[in-house]
Every structure is written in structure tokens, then in C-alpha cells.
Amino acid sequence: MQILGIETSCDETAAAVVEDGSRIISNVVASQIDIHARYGGVVPEVASRQHLLTIIPVINETMTGISWQDIGGIAVTFGPGLAGSLLVGVNVAKAIALAKKIPITGVNHLEAHIYANWLDSSPANEKDSVKFPCLCLIVSGGHSDLILMERHGQFKKLGRTLDDAAGEAFDKAARILGLGYPGGPAIEQSAHSGIPCLTLPRAWLKESYDFSFSGLKTALWHLVHKGEVSVADVAASFQLAVADVLVTKTIKAAKQLKVEQILLSGGVAANLTLTQHFLAKSPVQVLIPPPHLCTDNAAMVAACGYYHFQAGKASGYDLDVVPSLSIG
Ligand code: KG4
Ligand code: ZN
Fold first, then answer.
1. Residue whose CA is at the smallest distance from ligand 1 atom 14
2. Residues of 153-178 as b/e, b for ≥16 C-beta within 10 angstroms?
3. Which atom of ligand 1 is nearest to the CA of 170?
4. Long-range own/partner contacts, residues 27-33 (CB < 8 A, 24 or more apart)
5. From ligand 2's centre to the CA of 114, what distance in Å?
6. pLDDT of residue 128
7. How far apart are CA 109 and CA 160, in angstroms?
8. Per-residue pLDDT averaged across 168-190, rounded?
9. Which 3 state secondary structure label does DSSP give 139?
């Protein structure tokens, strides 16, 4: 079964066709990063107008060489995200579904991030398969969630961020350091020439699986404003502090809950320091999507949608956006 996935929740206009929830037939992402970079972050009004301009060309490119008759379902992100951005994807998906008489399902963007772990990273190289129960760490620009997944479609939230999301912390730290937007790749790049030699705080919140990164951000601000520190050393120390907390708390939960695997996902899972620490320290297998499937894309939406259709979960034409949707 081939599913057309559509993703417009933030600043990426994306469409993809995925077969049987894992094999990527086509995958197109039009990033708006260059447009928003001059403002230092995503401007919602600009994002939705850009989605309007880009969505049809992106879907046409995705469908090149693929027949509409082979598309068994359309999966579209309906939340969480920016209302005006989500509306573009959901309405285009509904219009196509109606015109082509294809069933449609609304997908939670956070669940979709997890499903990036079901995608084959390349046609020749099948990924290790997911084994339940697994522990899912979603670390994106808006969320840091620790989720227990016992089967398809079942998500139990164990922890979340109490303030800044991990990606948001990277973005804010990069702004303080004058490294530009988006902050994650900028910090990772700068950290290459630095040493993690500076002391930065870690919020362990010992009795819970929740996270907190705002204290770390404030400490970084004080460090920079005292002066005489190398930006590269601050970037390396910051990155290590974030990785340390995410890795330690996730592994503790994995041991306590006796899960089979840890599944990483979300834009921050593209960070090499984070993934190397996970691989070095985890007693259970860690699955990590390739970087281009960690950041926003529609292949993960199509993979998640496939399991919706398998479970008989289709949406009606009254499907609407839910900007504040959560998981678990
Ligand atoms: O999942 P994503 O593409 O979009 C959301 O759903 O939010 O995540 C974007 C976030 C941004 O905050 C970005 O700075 C961060 O992921 N990010 C990274 C890296 N690449 C993207 N953070 C750390 N290291 C990276 N290499
Ligand atoms: Zn995302």
C-alpha cells in the first residue's frame, strides 16, 4: 500500500510517497530556512504564505512517475504546529482526497517523528526492525518528550520539558552566541573547533523523567556576558550538557522499564554528539534515523499514516487542525 504523506506544520513544506510504512518511493522537502533566517526564527505569517506558494509544486514533484491510482491513502499532519501552516497541508490533503476519492487520515506530528524509525534509510539497506516495548525520545524545536510505546498507536508519556524544548534551547543558545538560525546545526558546527571544558549546569529533576533546559540557557548567557570565553568552547560545553541529561535520563528509564530498544527522533537527534553518547552508553539497541529523516519531512507522516489505515483509523472531511495537540 502506497501512502502520500503531507507535512506543513512549521517551516518545511514536504510531501512523500511511502510503501507499506517503510519503503520511501519519493521524498521532497522544501525548506524555508533561508527566508526565516534573517528574522532569527520562524515568522508564522510568512511560513503559511510560503506553504501556499510551495505545496502544489512539492506534491507534483513527489508524484512524478507515480500514478494516483496507486495511492491507497493520504496522511497529513494536523497538529501540533502553527495554525496557519497546518491549515495549508490539511486543506490541500482534503481537496485531493475528495477529488481523487482517496481515504485520508490526520497524523500527529510527534507520533510521525517516532515513525521515522520504521523508514528504510536507503533502498539497498534495510533498517533494523523496531521491537516493542520501546522507549521513544522525541527532541525537536517545540518538544522534548519521553514516550513508552508498547504497540502501534499506543503512546504513554513518561516525561516532557518543563520549559524550553531541547531544539529551542539550541536555537536560543545559538542566538546568544551570535551563531544564527537554526541553532542546532550552527552550534554543532562551531563545537567542532572547541573543547567542552566549561562548567555548565544540568537539571536532573531526579524524581521524574521531565527535562528542563532554561537554567542551562541562563548559565550560558552569564558565561558569555562575563566575556573572554571562546564561542567554540561554549558551544561544545553546551552541546555536551544537553546530551548528558538526555542520554542519562533516557537510559535510566530504559533500564527501569526493561524496554527492548530506544528510538530517537526529532531534529536534535541529528546531533552527532548526542547520538554517539547514546550508542556508547545504552545497554539496549538504539535506533536513530538518518539526519534528513530526523528533521521535518513527510515520509515519517506517510509511515505513521500507514499504521493508521492498517488499524482502520481514517478521518472524515471535517478533519481540522489542532495546533496544541500533544502525544500520550
Ligand atoms: O523536528 P524538527 O525539524 O522540527 C520541529 O518539529 O520542531 O526540529 C527542529 C529543531 C531545531 O530547534 C533545530 O535547531 C534542531 O532541531 N536541530 C538540531 C540539529 N539539527 C536540527 N539540534 C542539534 N543538532 C543538530 N544537528
Ligand atoms: Zn518536527
1. 184
2. eebeebbbbebbbbbbbbbbbbbbbe
3. 14
4. 27/62, 27/297, 27/298, 27/299, 28/58, 28/61, 28/62, 28/298, 29/292, 29/296, 29/297, 29/298, 30/54, 30/57, 30/58, 33/181, 33/182
5. 10
6. 74
7. 16
8. 96
9. strand
Assigned C-alpha cell, 306: 500507514
pLDDT one-digit tens code per residue, 251-282: 999 999 999 999 999 999 999 999 999 999 99
Nearest to 64 by CA among 116, 28, 32: 28
pLDDT at residue 228, as a whole number = 86
Q: Which ligand is nearest to the CA of 271?
A: 1
Angle at which helix 166-176 crosses helix 183-191, to 10 degrees, equals 70
Q: How is residue 165 written as a grid cell? A: 524544548
Q: What is the mean pLDDT of residues 208-212?
A: 98
pLDDT, position 225: 92
Residue 140 and residue 294: Cα distance in Å, rounded? 9
Residue range 213-222: mean pLDDT, rounded = 96
Span from the CA of 139 to the centroid of ligand 2 (angstroms): 9
Is residue 250 within 8 A of residue 262, CB to CB? The reply is: yes
Q: Which of 85, 161, 268 to mutate to test the pocket of ligand 1 (most atoms within 8 A of CB)?
A: 268
Percent of the chain with pLDDT over 90: 94
Residues framing ligand 1 (Cβ under 6 A) = 10, 140-142, 167-168, 170-171, 182-185, 188, 266-268, 270-271, 295-296
Is residue 126 very low, low, confident or very high in pLDDT (cuts 50, 70, 90)? low
**pLDDT score, position 124:** 55
**In ligand 1, which atom is closest to the CA atom of 174?**
14
Closest protein CA for atom 3 of ligand 1:
295
**Is 125 a residue whose pLDDT tops 90?**
no
Query: How many Å apart are CA 63 and CA 179, to the nearest integer?
Result: 37
> Is residue 122 over pLDDT 60?
no
For residue 183, give the ligand 1 atom closest to its CA.
Answer: 14
